């Protein structure tokens, strides 16, 4: 008997046993149903589609035997399981609940876009699938030439996919790259491609350093629970022995933390510089922890702390996350309100160096403990006399065992163009010093009928300072500093427009009337040592970078802003101006502990000129320059030019920097540096990149690097080479060389000199 059906509930036709979920119902759709009561079979033919308990089967023909409770499908069979995996085959024989079965000519595509192909497969218990003469890969076949071997694959006589244990085991297999076998795998097991965390061995990592030798890193990952795990590693170095590491990670409802330890018994500690404490230290190690927790939606706290046996163990052995030249330990508490911000930090600085000079042994004792540094900002929610009212507060307490004076101020020879105090040892007084600063500010905008914007500004600041130090540079142990400011800013934005462009010219003038800065040079300056005067801070009310110094006296800032947009896609912006000390003491001409402000361009009553200009288009080109020019003859005192251009396959950038002599800071000669970088995509998968930095005055190649990278949907590879050396006046000019590489097989793992061994679950 035959019947043509529209979609029907076929529970009666195919039997009550077709269930794993007692409430599941099956929906059968086919062009034709044929019942054979004598053979106890039901045959569905023509565009058959069965949906059951989240699974879907599509085939040309499906036959169900009511006596054996087995179902066979043939002709373009496709099964989409409830977990998203898709099975393709010509023939399939399964039980009526999809749990057990046998498949011929099988191809499986997982939700992670990986593929299994096999001559045949058996499924049992609804959990274990055994592929016979199978192939596994995460690569896609070439669309132009499907017969071309994929980039990598694993062939095995048996591939056992255990859905319960979330593992894939390969027996008597081989790893092939570009169709060529490169490794025999008698028995190899890995995590299910859909699993991101599973216990097991991780891919090895590799490293090399002159003093350590060649190193191989082996790691094991324990997935102890969904929210915590442990990674243990051992790195064997040919010169120094075995470095042991362990990292514990724990995620809680409101945050996460980790704990990392590392240690080694060095074979040849004498290979290190004899003047450093690590030379006689055979047993070296460290312990560190990071944490980040939310108290509620606005408040959070955390820490990043590290202690080690000597000053540079972590950098010597490239401990992940702790190998920088300056390691900062920090405990913090932050809060963000709708119109307020709170930031509390405790700091400890550790300079990790292995220089041969004897004074380097004292570096750690000259680094400050900061306990604490507190910043708070409050902006009144409602207007005060029609304007904005804000209160800014800062608390800073520091302790330093030994004074770090100007004689210890060592200019960097590698990266002079970087701003900030990274170029120096940060000088400071010995002992303890504390400062509390609070400033209230009110400002309001008035707009005249012709578009002039007038902004009056009133501010009142107080600093309470206490110093307990025998430093010769500190002459006061207690001080209270008050600063009252009355200011006015006037801006007149003028718009010019045409059918092809828009231009805005904005003359700007500021006037700030203040009392003189008191105690300049008599109290420590810890947080305002970094200072560069340029167009970006021309209109700052206080141009100092921190609270330990404050701008005093009456000062005017004059300048002109410009921005333009052309309909052709070009944009132009610029700013130029000058600053004038009209009355009172010039704070930038008042020396302090580190001579901040000297040779800055602001030390005279009429400052140097500052300017910046930039252009860009909508096709990846930009050019920008900024500079400071002498107030008398317009000679360049400091300047930078940056340019970059991007095409579809190529991007290039260049940077030139110039700084005139600054004898006060130990630079008696001009400094010039040129940096170039480029990246080119050869094709869809390959790219090359490189960069160089050249010190023009001493004709020194300071840094150079080059690299090659490949990436596609299943494989990535990168290799880099870098060289660095010090420029004069440094006497250490021998270059340092390093080579790094990383190979990554998607779903299998990655290895190389930059391997990330804290993630993954391959074994």
Automatic annotation (TrEMBL):
List keywords of the entry alphabetically: Cell outer membrane, Membrane, Signal
What are its GO biological-process terms? Gram-negative-bacterium-type cell outer membrane assembly; lipopolysaccharide transport
Q: What Pfam families does the entry give?
A: LptD
Quote a single Gene Ontology cellular component term: cell outer membrane
Q: Which residues form the LptD C-terminal domain?
A: 282-686
Where is this gene product found?
Answer: Cell outer membrane
Subunit annotation: Component of the lipopolysaccharide transport and assembly complex.
Per the entry, what this protein does is: Involved in the assembly of lipopolysaccharide (LPS) at the surface of the outer membrane.
Q: Which family does it belong to?
A: Belongs to the LptD family.
What's the name of the protein? LPS-assembly protein LptD
Organism of this sequence:
Paenochrobactrum gallinarii
